[in-house]
Specification:
By secondary structure, this protein is of the alpha/beta class. It is built from 20 helices and 10 strands.
Length: 621
Amino acid sequence: MTLPAISSRPAAAPPSNGVILRRLLQLGWRYRLACLHVLAQQLLLVLIAMLQLYLAGLGIDVIVWHVSVRTAHSPWPGGWQPPESWTPWTQVVILAAGIMAAALLHAGMRYRAAVVLTRLAQQRIVFQLRTAVYDKLQRLSFRFFDAHQSGSIINRVTGDVQAVRMFIDGVLIQVLAVTLSLTVFLGYMLSIHVGLTFACLATTPLLWVGAVIFSRIVRPAYQKNSKLVDQIMLVLSENIQGQPVVKGFGRAENEIAKFAAANAAVRDQKNEIFKTVSWFQPLMGFLTQINMMVLLGYGGYLVITQQMELGLGLFVFAKLLHEFANQVGQVTNIANSIQASFTGAERVFEILDTPLEVANPPDPYRPAAMRGEVRYEQVGFGYHAETPILRGIDFAVEPGQCMAVVGATGSGKSTLLSLLPRFYDATSGRVLVDGVDVRQWDLDVLRRGVGLVFQESFLFSNTVAANIAFGYPEATQEQIEKAAKIAAAHDFIKELQHGYDTVIGEYGTDLSGGQRQRLAIARAVLLEPPILIFDDALAAVDPETERDIMLAMENAMRGRTTFLIAHRLSTLRRADLVLVLQDGRIAQRGTHAELLAAEGHYREVAELQQAHSAESGTLRR
């Protein structure tokens, strides 16, 4: 089997605008049929609007002909001419009815187009893209989460995905719709008078130049804005999770000020963007007004010299020029949207493109059962190549044995055991389970064979039964209760208001620390894993709670290979092997009795604990 390589490449440079645009266009191509549907509706709306203009212009000419007693008639739609018996009033009423019918049809089509566009943007693009990003986050290694703040990750799944969606409906479709509309308007204007068309649209190239300049100015501003929003998300997330600390230290006012400062930074920076947009839009409007001045001068001359009709000529041309200016004015919004979508896309694509450092090999190892033999062979690891955390770790644990790991804070205890279920991959050496490198195992099979109980037991806002069965949702009530009894949790669960159906609060805050730990143990043993890891599960509990958890741990450990990160002698003496880590290396190894008899860190810590226990006993007496 080929082992997955460990990536040590430096972070890639941010992609260029061209690369991002190509990726976004590929995303648009994926939804091409829906986009074509929207564009077809936009074309129909433009044609209906053109029909309304034509009928209005024809109505004006009918009135002008009647007032000036002219006999010439401009053609009605399709070249048809009304009967001689139709009075001008009859013709005006019929044309007005036609305009009303076209307006109703236009309103209905606009509603339909809005529904289709919303369905495309929200129900398909946002839903599928957000699901893809979330799916990728579930498969990324811990290294990604170590490198990115939670606020940034949350913002990418929410705000940045919406920004990418904006490219489809706010940029791609709008560009095509504007191009389509401008083509139709330009064609009609040319059919009325070629010279007047070129004269009125002479300033149009300046609008496009302005849009390019505007885009280059606002791109860095949107990038900065995304980072500032990340900071708001981080402040909010930390404050919600840290409410006991905030209230306990009376820091509510400071936290309010902290959030207000982050919020103000986003507001002020957003105002800078709005200022840029605000001066660009009037500039665009000024250029379009120049076109209207040309129309009044040159177009008025053509009407006065009878080279152009008033209704089907100057009036329709003026309306077309107005609509043309409105469409060109969309360039500002498009330029604004494209920069926002580019910034969001860069951050979303960073997640989607992040390599899976921990992934299944091409032909994963899936045994019928796991025995629980574990061996580390000269294992080294570092979050960064220049700063190794573990060096030359070498030990073996037989199935059913218990190994404890002790050491000072930062010595690498948790990191050592995180290599076993492949939260990270060793940068040197091998970690083997049942004689097979963990990088050859099927990742789900490996992790389902390793039960985990952390120092801080995370519980979900769900029923007690659902929390215990988190790793095995199909578990029966009998299996759930069996796991709870092993974890010494059954008795207190039955005393809850609704027993196993009691919904516990977010993070399990309405349970005691000991109760949360016992539920975590039940969750770990429900799958009957051959290997158990207790990561400092007794670090912050009182003696009575410790006895309850120790009972649960002893029940869970029977017949399983167990790893303990622990500091208390009451826990360590149960281990068959104790490793003492110092600066990422194994400084001592042996049984509890052997290490007590030898000089070193272990005996020093044991003597300190015994002295503390004796002092506590004296104080109690």
